[in-house]
């Protein structure tokens, strides 16, 4: 519980009621507010009780009023409890009847200092074993009106069930009230401890509140109570609760003091920062004011300079426009005077330039034409000479070819004769000599034929080299003739080139629409064959012994 108390202001017990009446008057008049909602209450004397329910605040007021606090604190809380019970009893309507009754009638310390087992417990005797299952759910349901919080069956050290059970209640005054109600209920129905000790009937279940004699009993129940509770009077419990409350209040008071000190320091720092900020704002306002004044002066001066500059610029622009118009007028007059002379001079210059260009082109074309004619003449003379040489060599080759063919025929005849001689047996030495002569003679003829073949190949190779040189020369001549331009018309026919027109005329009757493609194919084939020095268009067929 939290409350604030002033230990220095003490009141006598006689003045407590007067002070409580005064506090009650303040509460009832609204000077001190304890309720701020339908079911929300606060303690106006304790800073820690700002949001409580009715039963919590009433229990707090009753507990502090019955504690060993200062008389002023007790008087204030007694007045609060009286105010809650008298003026706000409607808030207790939502509480269970027994709880409301316990709050309205708190227990007071007994004068005889009777010892009870604390936490508050009750003993049940003759509890059937089947009702102890599941944590005594059946028993707890039967005793629900007394608000028990726990059920424990008591067993012997060897595990045998004794028939007794212990129920526990809350540790506060409401729990003590429930425990007393539990005790009085069974006592009024002759099911209390005295009734149990009188007849020990096993037909009914007996129950009573645990006290000193139960705690000190030398049986399993006493052992269970000594292990799970202590013997205390109601006054001792009240003192312990008050001590805890005082400790809590002292701790909270210390925390509140520390927080108040911290808040004071923060407030001082905040004030210092506000003062510094205020000074900074004043300095900033002063600087802004001076800045605005200076900027106003600068802008005024700049505006005057701008106006003067624009005025001078307009005057200069007008003067320049007048001079420019005068210059344009004079230029126009001069242009009209000079235009005719310039046009005539330009026309003459263009004609002269054109004539010079034409003369140069004609000279260059004539020079190139002469060079090309000279090159063609030299090439034609060279080709004629080479053609004569090739013709002579061709005639020689034909003679050599005839000689080669004649030698081949002789070789075949000698080989036939040699075969006949080999098949003649018994002819003696003459046959052998004849055979050797025949073998020697064909070999000589074969050597002679090979020599003729080599001589035949030499002109062919030379002719091929000559054709290659002629082709290179023609390419060079074509390159030199091309720059002459469209005005020159010099035609050059390459040596050995096949004409396509006869092929086209020959292919038209046979191939129709495909005549051009077929003619081009045949022309290319003949062109390739003509370039091959080893190709011969005519075949020589040998019939019998003569070709």
UniProtKB/TrEMBL annotation:
Limits of the Factor of DNA methylation 1-5/IDN2 domain: 493-546
Taxonomic superkingdom: Eukaryota
Signal peptide: none
Domain XS, residue spans: 114-216
Statement: the UniProt record of this protein carries the keyword ATP-binding: no
Coiled coil: 317-417
Keywords: Coiled coil, RNA-mediated gene silencing
Name listed for the protein in its UniProt record: XS domain-containing protein
């Amino acid at each position: 519980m939290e409350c604030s108390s002033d230990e220095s202001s003490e009141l006598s017990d006689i003045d407590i009621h007067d002070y409580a009446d005064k506090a009650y008057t303040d509460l009832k008049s609204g000077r001190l507010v304890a309720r701020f909602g339908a079911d929300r209450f606060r303690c106006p004397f304790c800073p820690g009780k700002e949001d409580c329910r009715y039963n919590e605040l009433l229990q707090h007021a009753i507990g502090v009023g019955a504690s060993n606090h200062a008389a002023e604190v007790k008087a204030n809380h007694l007045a609060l409890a009286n105010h809650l019970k008298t003026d706000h009893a409607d808030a207790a309507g939502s509480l269970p009847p027994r709880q409301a009754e316990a709050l309205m009638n708190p227990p007071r310390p007994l004068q005889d200092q009777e010892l009870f087992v604390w936490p508050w417990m009750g003993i049940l005797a003759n509890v059937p074993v089947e009702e102890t299952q599941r944590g005594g759910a059946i028993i707890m349901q039967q005793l629900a009106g007394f608000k028990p919080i726990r059920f424990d069956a008591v067993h012997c050290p060897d595990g045998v069930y004794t028939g007794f059970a212990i129920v526990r209640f809350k540790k506060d005054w409401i729990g003590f009230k429930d425990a007393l109600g539990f005790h009085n209920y069974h006592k009024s129905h002759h099911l209390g401890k005295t009734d149990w000790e009188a007849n020990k009937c096993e037909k009914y279940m007996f129950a009573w509140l645990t006290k000193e004699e139960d705690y000190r009993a030398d049986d399993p129940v006493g052992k269970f109570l000594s292990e799970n509770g202590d013997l205390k009077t109601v006054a001792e419990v009240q003192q312990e609760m008050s001590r805890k409350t005082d400790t809590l209040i002292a701790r909270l008071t210390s925390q509140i003091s520390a927080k108040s000190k911290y808040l004071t320091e923060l407030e001082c720092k905040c004030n210092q920062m506000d003062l510094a900020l205020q000074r900074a704002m004043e300095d900033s306002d002063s600087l802004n004011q001076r800045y605005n004044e200076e900027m106003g002066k600068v802008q005024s001066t700049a505006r005057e300079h701008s106006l003067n500059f624009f005025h001078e610029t307009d005057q200069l622009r007008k003067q320049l426009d007048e001079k420019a118009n005068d210059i344009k007028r004079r230029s126009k007059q001069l242009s009209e005077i000079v235009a005719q002379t310039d046009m005539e001079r330009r026309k003459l210059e263009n004609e002269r330039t054109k004539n010079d260009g034409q003369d140069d082109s004609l000279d260059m074309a004539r020079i190139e034409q002469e060079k090309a004619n000279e090159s063609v003449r030299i090439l034609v003379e060279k080709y004629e000479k080479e053609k004569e040489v090739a013709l002579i060599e061709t005639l020689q080759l034909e003679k050599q070819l005839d000689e080669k063919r004649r030698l081949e025929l002789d070789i075949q005849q000698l080989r036939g004769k040699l075969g006949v001689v080999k098949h003649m047996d018994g002819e003696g030495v003459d046959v052998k000599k004849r055979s050797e002569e025949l073998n020697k003679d064909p070999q000589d003829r074969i050597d002679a034929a090979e020599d003729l073949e080599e001589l035949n190949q030499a002109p062919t190779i030379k002719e091929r080299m000559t054709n290659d040189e002629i082709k290179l020369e023609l390419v060079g001549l074509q390159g030199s003739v091309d720059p002459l331009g469209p005005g020159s018309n010099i035609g050059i026919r390459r040596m050995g080139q096949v004409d396509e027109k006869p092929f086209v005329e020959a292919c038209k009757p046979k191939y129709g629409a495909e005549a051009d493609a077929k003619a081009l194919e045949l022309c290319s084939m003949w062109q390739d064959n003509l370039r091959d020095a080893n190709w011969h268009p005519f075949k020589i067929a040998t019939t019998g012994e003569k070709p």
